[in-house]
Structure formats: structure tokens, C-alpha cells
């Protein structure tokens, strides 16, 4: 008896010890994960626009409520009190960066606080994740997510068509989504009956779409099925609380079998007879239910760049009669005649449905086309027309005060005028509550007017920039010199800017050359000298743009360097010596080169592999560093000769020298962590407190004399933006889960004049900068704060391709749910711990306990459940 009691006591003691260790383990993990943080105030460096806006969506149920979607930069809602767009998807993090591409957006006309977005960036292998439907019930302030069983291409061909996502205006718990496809198939029509929580495929929909832009595209970008473009409800065929019965769907189909209809809420679908059948891509389908007209804007291409033929058709839904109402009819030969473009940007004035507008989205020269009709398409007037070549007359004036760089270099061609009306004008929308307000998206901004009806009386409309707050540049390089402007940016599509004031839009982007700027550097001891490189070769204004340029006045003016190394295929990376005398350039496609003549002549460097990462020492003018293939290189003679000083470092990385500290160089090695040298590259040491680091930058010291170190990294299991004030010994997370901006792995820098200020380059959300707004917070020892909640309240189960909504997990089948109560929680961890020490707990199913799949049941399985319970992991093995 005594022996038995002793054994029971021993087991109980063992269990208590194990559980105590478990608590200590989790306290340690959580403490380290959230050990130090600091609140920051985040803003955009003002550029205004800069990328493609494929969709503008007014909510027809609430006056003034309008959203915009972008192809790589998330979604926005317009704040009418400031006339600025509010970003809605900044919470999207590193691992789900693909959700920043928004293929479609739907605003609920009944519960107008609800909004939905179909998100995903690519349908090919560039994107490892499936798409998702995001849903919000607070105007986009917070979101929940349903992952779909296929990819979504918010930055793929056809992204300007739509809207593919639609809410039933009578029974708003019902939504339809016309899915795109991938390289293997289209994914059909999908439906939700529970406000977008679960989705199932509409199996009886007859045609998912077979159109592909270019089946032979070896880049796997143009060879995807574009699927279903839009879903349009006929509101008059339902009533409040009862589902709409007539629904139209537009499909991308090579045979012209494009427009389908149901008259019984989706129980059956039919191809509408008599449709034109000559064009494959019905970009838009808008219904005027007052006059029973469905308008369709067609192109022979999915866009948004191409399209060489199009038409606008009007379908009488009462008589089933079709009529071509094109402003300019095609002659049946693509690219010839007056119709050399496809149509899109279709909109109806809901206050006066006989007034409609449409764009020639793919008319690049001399400008895009916009037409307006006030008699349901019987006649049209253009926004501009030819007088006598090259002269044109205009029904508009333009004001680009809010984004003066839209003058685009100030060198128009013969018939062109600057600023242009735009290009890629896939979306144009008239405010359903105000006939005078119209907005349209372009490849660079949102334009709009608030005196639209002046057009109808022969007057001119005033078009102005309506894009404030929406920032959609892809940022490739950032520098913040010690003197001169606080920031200079290198961008993709719009080249880059000198930012003399962070809250003021620059007057002009970089010219001489106009290149996608991939890298810049300045002379640390002579910061007015700057060198930039990028992707040249394009002819602009009859001049072939070379791949590099220099400035001697802090970026105010630039000189294109005509001589460059042979064989360049991309801009690569550039490093400027501390005094500006020597430059080392590592372009794509050829060897590393150096110049001692401000870039007018180049000589191949010896001893270093091509396409290496390069950097300069910020104190010693002769000292340059390189890294490639796991080797570290050093040059002591201005880049002429390099030698290997260390091996075993990351195969790829980003190098930066530390201002004011000779021989100090850091390497952000991606998944191989963060490395540093203090002896000029003779030895490099990995920082053990950083798991991954993708960018590295330096700014003014926050404390002490060493530069503040900034990185986009994974530290203690947390992905974020971090700052170190003690040369990497400890780290402070300075962003939070509401401010993640998807992928931030390209460029970062601190400000050398403002302690704590950091500039972050994003891929689609422009340049973010932050200033500290609170003190550093360190939880006291033993404190176990709860993990920071992400803005996704729930993740619903992945739907299956059936007609049945996705089921919740069944108790007794869920790994980790050892007591089979349908949930995985701390009780399951306790039961595994009891089982491990031999207490034989009741209600215990050992078949569900192996959470690390090692065929053993031990304390590790309990610890994994505890991690799952507190939110540190989201799935088992």
C-alpha cells in the first residue's frame, strides 16, 4: 500500500514537473518572441499613385462609399472627409504576400458595412499559395479569410475585367465568384450562401471559359485560362430577402460563347442565343434594368495591355434582341482601321440610365479613348477627336497639381499632349448618387471629374488626380544621404524620385536615363554624388535609354552615361566609393566592372564572380566588398582586383557598409540569417539571435555612437521590421500586425539625420516611413503576454469542389483532439502528459495524439498542442 502510494506520488510529481516545464517553455518562447517592441507612426512618402488601378467600385446602397482595387498593392476605401484613399490590406504579412493582389472586389448594397475581396497574385508557380476570399463587416477595417482550392491572379492577364465577385442585391447572404483559371484549366463559377464564409462550385454552370492569351508563352504568364470575367444581377427579379432570379455571367471563350443567363436563381443556365460570337473577351457587363438593356464591352484580348479590336453590344433583356452600339465599329481585321483597340471601362449613370460611358482601354497612342452617350448608345461623343493631324480638339482640361510627375518627362510626341488621359483604362465608374462625379483608373493613377454633365451641354469637363493616399509603386532601392534630400528612391515602372519633402509629391521622376532603377549608392564622404543603375534599352523620345546615370547635386539633376559594360541584361547592383572617385557595378548578364571616371568608362574587375552583390566601405575610399556563391570578396584598390577572404557565408545576400566605421560590413543572407564583419571582411560572424534577414540598412544612432541597424527579418520566430540600437546584440520590433505591407524583402534604410526614422520599400504599397512614437517596451521576467492577434479573426475551412459547403471537423478525427470533443486545446495537452507518465487517463484516443508524426507519444506532442493553443503554430506535421 505504501509502495503504491509512493509510486502514485512519483507519477504525480513527474506530471507536475512536466507541466511546469511546459509552462516555463511557453513563457520563454512567448517572452522572447515579444521581448521588445516599440510603437511607431507609419506614413507613406508621398508619390500619389504610380501603378495600375484595374477596378473602382461604388457601393450602390450608400452614398459616397467607393473602393478601389489594385493588382499588387491591395485595396482602398475613399475617405470623403479628406478625399484620400485609406489602405485596407496593410495587415497582410510576409507569408501571405500573394493576397495583396486583388482580382475583384464587391460592396454589399444591403448591409453596406460589408465588403468582399477575391485575392491572390499569380496563377502560375511564381505564387506558392492559393487564392482567398476576404470578407469584412466594418468597411474593410478588419477581415476574415476563406482559402480557396485554386489560385487567383490579381496581377495576371484579364485583371481589368469584372467584377467577378458579386453580392445578390436582394438576398445579400448570397455571393457569386467567377473564377479565373491556371495553365491546366479554368475553375468555373462559385457560390456562397453564408456571406462568403464557405464556397462551393456551381456544378451545372456550362462553360468555365477556354480563352488563353498565348498558349505558347514560355514565361508561363500569358498561358493561363482567364475564366469568368463578371457576374451581374437583375435586381428587379427578386425582392428583399428573396434571391434574385435572373443573373448574367460573362465568360472568356475563344468561340464567342460568352454570355450566359439563369432565370431561376442558378438552378439552370443557358447560353443566350443570337450573341455576336466574334470576340472572345467580354471585359464588362452592366445592366440597365430600368430600360431592360444589358451592355457588354468586348475585346479580342484579355488586356490590360493588349487588344486590337473590339465592340460594344446592347442586349434587350425583354425581347432578347442584340444590337451593336460601338462608338467605333471594328472592320473584322485586328489592328486596322479606326478601331484598333478593345473596349472596357463601361458604366451607366444610375440617376439617368440612358447616359452610358465606355473606354478604349488599349488605345495607347496618341491617348486612351473615352466616349459618352445620353441615348443608350445610339449616338456617342468622344472626349477628344481629330481636327487635322496632328491637331486634336478636347472636351476636357486636366489638372495634375496633386501628382505633377504625371507630365511624364515633359516630351510629348507629335500628336500627343501631356499629361495624357491615361492607358490601360479598364475601369470607369459614374457615382450612382451623383451624375457629375466620375472616376477612372489608369496604369499610373486615378483620374476623375466632378462636373461630368457639362460634357452633355457642349462644355468641357475638368479632369484631375483623385488618387491621394493610394500608393502603388514597386520600390527597388532607397538611399538616405547624410546631406541634401532626406530620401532618394529607385522604382520600377516610374523610375524614381528625389524626395526633398516626405509629405510633398515630387515634381518629376528621374530622367537621363528613364530606367527602372534597380540600385543606387552615394559617396558617404561626398553625399552629393550619387550613381544609379537599372534596366535600360528602351527607346523614349527617340533616345535609347542606357543603363546608368550619375548626379553631382544630390539627385536634383542627372546625366545618362553612354558607355556601359557589354552584355548587360539588367541593372544589377552598384556601389560608390566613400569619396566618389571609384564606382563598382555588378550588372546582370556580365562581369563586375569598376570605373574611376564617374562611369564614363568601365573596366572588368578581376578575382570576383559575375553578378555578385557588392558594397563600398563607408570610410575607406579604396575598400569594396562583394559576396557571391558563399564566398566573401574584398578589394583594397577601388574595385580593380578582388580576393576571397572568407567562405561559408550565405550563397546570396545584401551587403551594406556601416557609415563612420571602417571595415564594418553586414550581410543579410535571407534564410541564412544576418552576418557581420568588423575587420574589413577577414572574418564574418553570424548573429545567432536572427533566424532570417532579407534587408539591411543603417540610420542615425538612437543610443550610443553605433548606427541604428534596420532589417526585415525573422527574429525569435516573429516576422517583422526590426531595429537594433546595440550593433545587433538585441532587437526591437518596430512594426506590428496591422502594419506589415506584405513583402518587404528588397530595400530598407534608416535616416542618418533623424534617430529612429526608417524607410521601407514595398512591392506595391509604395515607400513606407516610420518614426518612433513610444518608448521601448520590455515585458518583465515571467510575464507571458498573449501573442499579438492578427487582423484575421477566423480562418475558415478550405472549401472542396463540391456543391456542399465545407463541413467543420468531426469530433474523433482531428489530430490533437485526444479527448474527441471536437476542439484542440490545453486539456488535450494535459491528457497526453498524463498518458506519458503512465496515469492512463480516461477519454483518451492515442490514435490522435502523435502531433509531430514521429510514431511516438511523448511530451513533445503535448508541447506542440500547447503551442497550437496559444497561437504559435497553426497546424501539426
Question: Keywords, please?
Answer:
single chain; 877 residues; mainly beta; five-stranded mixed beta sheet; disordered N terminus
Structure description:
It contains three helices and 62 strands. By secondary structure, it is mainly beta. It has a five-stranded mixed β-sheet with strand order 6-7-8-9-62, with no helix packed on it. A hairpin with a 4-residue loop joins strand 34 and strand 35 (496-499). Helix 2 (826-836) runs antiparallel to helix 3.
Could you write a compact summary of the structure shown?
The chain is mainly β and 877 residues long.
Mean pLDDT over all positions? 91
In which order are the strands of the major sheet placed?
Answer: 6-7-8-9-62
Name the poorly predicted regions: 1-34, 783-812
Please state the oligomeric state of the protein chains shown: single chain
Structural class: mainly beta
Estimated share of beta-strand residues? 25-35%
The major pleated sheet works out as:
5 strands, mixed
The number of helical elements comes to: 3
* C-alpha termini separation: 43 Å
**SS elements, strand count:** 62
How would you describe the shape?
A: globular
* Rg calculated over all Cα atoms: 30 Å
Helical percentage: under 10%
Amino acid at each position: 500500500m505504501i509502495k503504491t502510494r509512493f509510486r502514485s506520488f512519483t507519477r504525480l510529481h513527474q506530471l507536475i514537473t512536466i507541466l511546469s516545464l511546459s509552462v516555463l517553455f511557453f513563457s520563454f518562447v512567448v517572452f522572447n518572441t515579444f521581448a521588445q517592441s516599440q510603437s511607431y507612426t507609419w506614413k507613406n512618402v508621398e508619390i500619389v499613385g504610380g501603378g495600375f488601378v484595374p477596378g473602382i467600385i461604388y457601393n450602390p446602397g450608400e452614398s459616397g462609399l467607393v473602393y478601389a482595387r489594385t493588382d499588387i498593392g491591395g485595396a482602398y476605401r475613399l475617405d470623403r472627409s479628406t478625399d484620400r484613399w485609406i489602405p485596407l490590406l496593410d495587415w497582410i504579412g510576409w507569408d501571405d504576400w500573394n493576397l495583396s493582389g486583388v482580382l475583384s472586389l464587391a460592396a454589399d448594397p444591403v448591409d453596406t458595412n460589408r465588403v468582399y475581396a477575391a485575392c491572390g497574385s499569380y496563377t502560375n508557380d511564381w505564387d506558392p499559395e492559393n487564392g482567398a476570399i476576404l470578407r469584412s463587416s466594418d468597411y474593410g477595417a478588419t477581415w476574415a479569410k476563406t482559402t480557396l482550392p485554386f489560385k487567383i491572379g490579381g496581377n495576371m492577364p484579364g485583371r481589368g475585367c469584372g467584377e467577378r465577385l458579386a453580392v445578390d442585391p436582394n438576398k445579400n447572404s448570397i455571393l457569386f465568384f467567377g473564377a479565373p483559371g491556371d495553365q491546366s484549366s479554368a475553375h468555373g463559377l462559385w457560390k456562397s450562401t453564408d456571406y462568403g464564409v464557405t464556397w462551393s462550385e456551381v456544378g451545372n454552370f456550362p462553360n468555365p471559359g477556354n480563352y488563353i492569351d498565348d498558349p505558347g508563352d514560355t514565361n508561363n504568364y500569358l498561358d493561363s485560362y482567364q475564366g469568368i470575367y463578371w457576374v451581374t444581377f437583375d435586381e428587379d427579379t427578386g425582392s428583399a430577402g428573396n434571391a434574385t432570379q435572373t443573373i448574367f455571367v460573362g465568360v472568356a471563350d475563344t468561340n464567342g460563347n460568352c454570355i450566359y443567363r439563369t432565370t431561376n436563381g442558378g438552378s439552370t443556365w443557358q447560353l443566350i442565343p443570337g450573341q455576336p460570337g466574334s470576340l472572345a473577351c467580354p471585359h464588362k457587363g452592366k445592366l440597365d434594368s430600368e430600360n431592360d438593356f444589358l451592355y457588354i464591352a468586348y475585346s479580342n484580348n484579355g488586356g490590360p495591355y493588349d487588344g486590337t479590336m473590339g465592340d460594344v453590344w446592347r442586349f434587350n433583356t425583354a425581347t432578347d434582341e442584340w444590337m451593336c452600339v460601338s462608338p467605333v465599329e471594328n472592320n473584322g481585321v485586328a489592328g486596322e482601321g479606326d478601331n484598333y483597340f478593345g473596349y472596357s471601362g463601361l458604366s451607366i449613370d444610375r440617376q439617368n440610365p440612358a447616359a452610358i460611358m465606355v473606354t478604349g482601354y488599349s488605345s495607347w497612342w496618341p491617348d486612351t479613348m473615352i466616349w459618352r452617350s445620353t441615348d443608350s448608345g445610339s449616338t456617342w461623343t468622344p472626349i477628344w477627336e481629330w481636327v487635322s493631324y496632328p491637331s486634336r480638339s478636347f472636351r476636357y482640361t486636366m489638372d495634375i497639381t496633386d501628382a505633377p510627375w504625371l507630365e511624364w518627362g515633359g516630351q510629348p510626341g507629335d500628336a500627343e499632349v501631356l499629361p495624357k488621359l491615361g492607358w490601360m483604362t479598364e475601369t470607369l465608374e459614374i457615382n450612382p448618387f451623383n451624375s457629375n462625379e466620375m472616376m477612372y483608373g489608369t496604369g499610373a493613377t486615378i483620374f476623375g471629374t466632378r462636373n461630368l454633365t457639362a460634357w452633355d451641354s457642349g462644355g468641357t469637363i475638368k479632369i484631375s488626380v483623385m488618387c491621394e493616399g493610394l500608393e502603388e509603386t514597386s520600390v527597388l532601392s532607397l538611399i538616405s544621404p547624410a546631406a541634401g534630400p532626406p530620401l532618394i528612391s529607385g522604382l520600377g515602372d516610374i523610375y524614381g524620385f528625389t524626395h526633398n519633402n516626405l509629405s510633398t509629391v515630387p515634381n518629376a521622376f528621374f530622367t537621363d536615363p528613364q530606367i527602372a532603377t534597380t540600385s543606387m549608392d552615394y559617396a558617404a564622404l561626398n553625399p552629393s554624388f550619387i550613381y544609379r543603375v537599372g534596366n535600360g534599352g528602351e527607346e523614349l523620345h527617340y533616345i535609347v535609354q542606357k543603363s546608368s546615370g550619375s548626379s553631382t547635386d544630390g539627385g536634383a539633376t542627372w546625366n545618362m552615361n553612354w558607355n556601359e559594360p557589354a552584355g548587360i541584361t539588367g541593372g544589377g547592383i552598384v556601389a560608390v566609393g566613400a569619396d566618389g572617385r571609384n564606382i563598382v557595378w555588378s550588372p546582370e548578364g556580365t562581369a563586375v566592372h569598376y570605373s574611376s571616371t564617374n562611369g564614363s568608362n568601365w573596366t572588368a574587375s578581376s578575382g570576383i564572380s559575375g553578378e555578385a552583390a557588392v558594397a563600398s566601405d563607408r570610410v575607406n575610399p579604396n575598400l569594396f566588398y562583394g559576396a557571391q556563391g558563399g564566398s566573401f570578396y574584398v578589394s583594397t584598390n577601388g574595385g580593380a582586383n578582388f580576393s576571397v577572404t572568407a567562405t561559408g557565408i550565405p550563397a546570396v545576400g545584401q551587403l551594406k557598409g556601416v557609415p563612420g566605421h571602417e571595415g564594418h560590413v553586414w550581410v543579410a543572407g535571407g534564410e541564412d540569417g544576418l552576418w557581420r564583419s568588423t575587420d574589413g571582411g577577414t572574418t564574418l560572424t553570424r548573429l545567432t539571435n536572427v533566424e532570417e534577414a532579407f534587408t539591411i540598412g543603417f540610420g542615425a544612432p538612437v543610443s550610443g555612437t553605433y548606427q541604428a541597424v534596420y532589417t526585415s527579418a525573422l527574429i525569435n520566430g516573429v516576422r517583422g521590421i526590426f531595429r537594433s540600437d546595440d550593433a545587433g546584440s538585441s532587437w526591437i520590433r518596430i512594426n506590428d500586425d496591422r502594419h506589415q505591407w506584405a513583402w518587404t524583402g528588397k530595400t530598407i534604410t534608416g535616416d542618418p539625420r533623424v534617430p529612429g526614422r526608417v524607410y521601407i520599400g514595398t512591392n506595391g504599397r509604395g515607400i513606407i516611413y516610420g518614426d518612433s512614437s513610444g518608448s521601448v517596451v520590455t515585458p518583465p521576467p515571467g510575464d507571458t503576454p498573449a501573442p499579438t492577434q492578427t487582423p484575421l479573426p477566423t480562418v475558415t475551412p478550405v472549401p472542396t469542389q463540391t456543391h456542399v459547403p465545407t463541413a467543420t471537423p468531426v469530433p474523433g478525427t482531428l489530430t490533437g483532439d485526444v479527448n474527441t470533443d471536437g476542439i484542440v486545446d490545453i486539456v488535450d495537452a494535459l491528457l497526453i502528459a498524463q498518458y506519458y507518465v503512465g496515469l492512463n487517463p480516461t477519454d483518451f484516443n492515442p490514435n490522435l495524439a502523435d502531433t509531430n508524426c514521429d510514431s511516438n507519444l511523448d511530451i513533445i506532442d503535448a508541447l506542440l498542442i500547447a503551442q497550437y493553443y496559444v497561437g504559435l503554430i497553426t497546424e501539426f506535421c
